[in-house]
Each structure stands twice: as structure tokens, then as C-alpha cells.
Design goal:
single chain, alpha/beta, about 50% helix
Length: about 160
């Protein structure tokens, strides 16, 4: 089973591709989709859609996992994150790939064992589980995407 996890964002969308065979989960690839910040919102959303579509074409996943939008104090930020998430959802739908989303709390609980864990704790566990160095995780968007995919791999039963 191939799982792609996405941490949606208009500046950086983290992604991680995992393979699950029985109880063994391996990291195939991870990185960032980086829309040009000077572009219009619609152009940035189209970049996210296009790049996530390319990833889906390349890896033919069985499942796409996305983090639910967290509503904080800034409503505008939540709306923009929702738009980035929608671009990824459209990519999954375009290729008829099953898609699930989990809350930040569920994702942190899955990888750290504590739903209130910090981004640093998530990154630490991702490094430990997949034996990664600091260079592999130059952004918390990447470690978050790995944690999101991990959550999907461990919760979604096929």
C-alpha cells in the first residue's frame, strides 16, 4: 500500500510518500511543494494542484491523507489553508484516490502518543522512526507531512 501525506500551506505544502507492507512502513520520498509567493492566490493554488497531481501520477497511491485545517485566531489564515487543502483534495479526486483527513491532535497522538505534542516533538519522533538526519527534515512542513502519512498508514485499514 502506498500512502501520500500532505501538510497543506500556501507557502510550503509538505508531502511524504510511505509504503506499508504488513506492519512495516518505509519512507519513499518527502519534500515541499513551494508555490511562488509573489504569484496570485489562484496561481499558487494551481501550483499546489499541479504538483500534487504529479506526485499522485508518479507514485499511484492507494490513499491520500491530509491534515484538517486548524482554526486558530486568524480566520483569513484558516480560509487560505482550506483553499490549499481543497487543491490537494481535487488532485486526489481527479485520480479517484481514496482520501482521508485527520485533525492535528489525531496526527500527534498517532506518532508521538500525545495529542498536545509540539512540532519539535513530532519532528523528533519522525527522525527516530525513519532514522533521518536533520538535513532530510529542513522544514517542519516535511516532518508534519510524514506524521500525517504515518497516521493514515496506521489508521486506515484496507
Amino acid at each position: 500500500m502506498i500512502i501520500i501525506g500532505f501538510d497543506p500551506g500556501l507557502t510550503n505544502t509538505g508531502y511524504a510518500v510511505l509504503r506499508k507492507e504488513a506492519n512495516n512502513i518505509t519512507l519513499i520520498e518527502c519534500g515541499l511543494v513551494k508555490p511562488k509567493t509573489k504569484k496570485s492566490l489562484s496561481a499558487r493554488l494551481f501550483t499546489i494542484f499541479s504538483e500534487t497531481s504529479k506526485l499522485i501520477e508518479s507514485f499511484s497511491p492507494n490513499l491520500v491523507v491530509i491534515e484538517n485545517v486548524f482554526y486558530g485566531k486568524n480566520v483569513q489564515s484558516a480560509i487560505k489553508l482550506g483553499q490549499a487543502k481543497a487543491s490537494i483534495m481535487l488532485s486526489a479526486e481527479k485520480y479517484n484516490i481514496d482520501m482521508v483527513d485527520y485533525s492535528p491532535r489525531e496526527i500527534k497522538q498517532s506518532i508521538v502518543g500525545n495529542g498536545s505534542a509540539s512540532k519539535e516533538q513530532v519532528a523528533f519522533m519522525v527522525k527516530k522512526i525513519f532514522k533521518l538526519n536533520d538535513e532530510a527534515l529542513k522544514s517542519t512542513d516535511v516532518s508534519d507531512a510524514i506524521a500525517i502519512a504515518w497516521c493514515g498508514a496506521n489508521r486506515k485499514q484496507k
